[in-house]
Specification:
alpha+beta, 5-stranded antiparallel beta sheet, disordered C terminus, about 30% strand, about 290 residues, 13 strands
Length: about 290
Amino acid sequence: MKGLNHKMVTVVGVSFKLAGKIYYFDPAGFELKQGDHVIVETVRGIEFGKVMIGPREAPEDKVAFPLKKVLRIATPEDHLQLKENEEKSKKAFNVCLEKIKQHQLVMKLVDVEYTFDRSKIIFYFTADGRVDFRELVKDLAAVFKTRIELRQIGVRDEAKMLGGLGPCGRPLCCATFLGEFEPVSIKMAKEQNLSLNPVKISGICSRLMCCLKYESSSYRDAKADLPLVGSKVRIDGAEGIIIETYPVKESVMVELEDGVKKEVLLAEIEEIILDNNDENNKETEEIQ
């Protein structure tokens, strides 16, 4: 059939940080496998990365061109240089802290990173607003004799860089496996009948926890099979009104005519009693 003959290209997926975004490169004939360390050329210069996706065929229209090549498999010397860069980054961090104090800038230094070829040093920071760091850049350039970049990041990026433990007691998702942040809304917490207390649904970054999204679609699908809150039902010959639903358990909380509240499974509902208010109830539920 026309339009189905896509030209394929061989690529490998490389990441430069733990839980970092994956970029595609031309393996350039090297026999690579997942877990190998490689030296590649990027827009930032020469970089040290890890193969996260082994060689595979991908349609040309799914790959960003020009596709840069893997320069070589990382050597022991490359690993040594990476370690030296990490040590230099720690020293640069302390120097930058002192310079920030000297210039009395309202900013929080989060991390410092040397590019692999040491052609540039990137200083990551957070701040409540815009910061005039031009004099700071001049001072840092005079000390390190190389290109300096100051990059302002958000609180989620800060958590991803620093790591830590979430409310669940496990290492942060963003710092261990989430390559990119996805939108999270308070509606997802409501769909899962979670407490809307900000303390309980926020991560250490003070934003809504990323894990609220993990089961959101499952709750939404399960909720679609349950009667709406406010619906009249008959159970064991008695009538009542649904006051709460539990999608995962496929059950509802019913308040009977005598005021007694009872949780029942969906299968135990004998009849859903329809009346003229059903459409109004539906509209109310959608607004909530």
